[in-house]
Amino acid sequence: MRRAVFAGVLALCACLSVEAWAQQLDRAVFKGMAGELLRTVKSGQRIAVLPFSREDSAVSQRTADLIADYLTDALLKEGTGLLGGQNYTIVARAELAKVFAEAQEFHKSTRGHMKDKVDDILAQAKADVIVTGSMTVAPGGVQLSYKAIQVLTGHILGTATPTVVPLDLDREAEGQVLATTDAAVQAAIDHFARTVTGLRSIRRKGLYYQNSGIQTPFGREFESLVLAGLRGKVTNLDTSEAFLSAPEGRGGKVKAAAIDDELVSQERGEYLFDGSYWDVGSAVEVRVALRNRQADSHSWTGRLRKSAIPAAWGLAPTRDWSEATGQDNLGPIALYLSSNKGRNPSYHFGEKLHLLIQTDRDAHLYCFMLQSDGTALKLFPNRYHPRSRIAGDFLHTLPGKTMPFEIELEGPPSAELVKCFAIDHDVDEHLPDIYRTADETPFRFTSEKDLLVTFRAVPNIRITEASLIVNIVP
């Protein structure tokens, strides 16, 4: 007898409740993806689907929730046909509502990706398998790519073929629709000048391309113009860059999120500026915010015609690292990776990079810096700290007092990728010589996926990976 257990509120019911106001989506595309994902699921497994958030997608939260509900419903129906007499449980989005709300609050305060909170989500769901996806804008809609990951080991069980879901992105618009760049900049200035009282300082964090963590000429120019306009309206307004002072002095058992929180002031009149922008076909949607830890945050969203953006303001990054970041923080070891300027920082030519790393248990750490010119540097282990093992629940700095070297960043402008892996035991003997011996000497890589393939091919390990985009600007 075939039997499938569905935990929580039926996805079908959730979908029907939103059809009145959300766009109609083609259920058939979810059927195919669900079948591919379930082919490797074993009997008795509990499956949780990570939904998309508004902050990390080009669609409204309503449509993002609908996508998660349709996939969940398809998993239930396809599983009944595919798994025969096997039993499994699918966790409904409604069952995870509380923990996702907490994750989104974390995101709003620190601009951390919601996956940074995935360890809490998995604990709440008691999931054996997590289904996570990426969403990118495609002609005629959005492209969805999903993978099923085993929580215990962090290994990928199966993937679904990337599929385009037809969607009218113009109907997903939120906020003002503006004709020109100048009009959008002025609207943002006027909004913050009107809604924020007692403004004294704004710490600049960055305006990123979609959810990539990459800052482009467009992002830097838009941010610069908005802040210049606010300085013209507010006397003695300080708009210096956000950074953490003396991170190497922390150490000890420090909550990772508490470090990032320090970028966001709790003093009245002091804010962090950050945001993202989304290429949605004929328009660009800009989302910016001023954030304060005293629940005093202000946001603005507007769309402008892509044709009105100066050609010199490059919209899309010259290099896309998304294939190397899709499995971040999806594993059994909680791995925190940040910098003295927070997540996905910007450094000027000649500045020095300081990484902050923490795991929730003792682990073996391997970190590399992939550069846009196709070369990579091994950051850890290194000749100052040749062993890969690090203590858990301790904030490690790289470089630090025990590793007296410097990572000085040079031009040209680019976005580099720091990639770290936390593993339950030493895997040196399974790694190619170039990964074991390369130290302060660049080596070439063919694809940003090279590291992922190599580390995930090591047998009998439990692994979690994390990424940090490092923007290098003039």
Layout of helices and strands:
Layout: E1 5-7, H1 11-18, H2 27-38, E2 46-49, H3 61-82, E3 89-91, H4 97-110, H5 118-125, E4 129-138, E5 141-150, E6 156-159, E7 163-166, E8 176-178, H6 181-195, E9 201-209, H7 217-233, H8 256-261, E10 270-279, E11 283-291, E12 298-305, E13 335-339, E14 346-348, E15 355-359, E16 363-370, E17 375-380, E18 389-390, E19 396-398, E20 414-423, H9 433-437, E21 443-444, H10 450-456, E22 463-473
Parallel strand pairs: 1-3, 2-3, 2-4, 8-12, 9-10, 14-22
Antiparallel strand pairs: 4-5, 5-6, 5-7, 10-11, 11-12, 13-15, 15-19, 16-17, 16-18, 16-20, 17-21, 20-22
Helix pairs in contact: 1-3, 2-3, 6-7
Give an account of the 3D structure.
- The longest helix has 22 residues, at 61-82.
- The strands form four sheets. Strands 1, 2, 3, 4, 5, 6 and 7 form a seven-stranded mixed sheet that branches. Strands 14, 16, 17, 18, 20, 21 and 22 form a seven-stranded mixed sheet that branches.
- The protein is built from ten helices and 22 strands.
- The chain is globular, with a radius of gyration of 22 Å.
- It is an alpha/beta fold and 474 residues long.
- It has three domains: 5-171, Rossmann fold (3-Layer(aba) Sandwich), CATH 3.40.50; 176-308, Rossmann fold; 328-473, Immunoglobulin-like (Sandwich), CATH 2.60.40.2550.
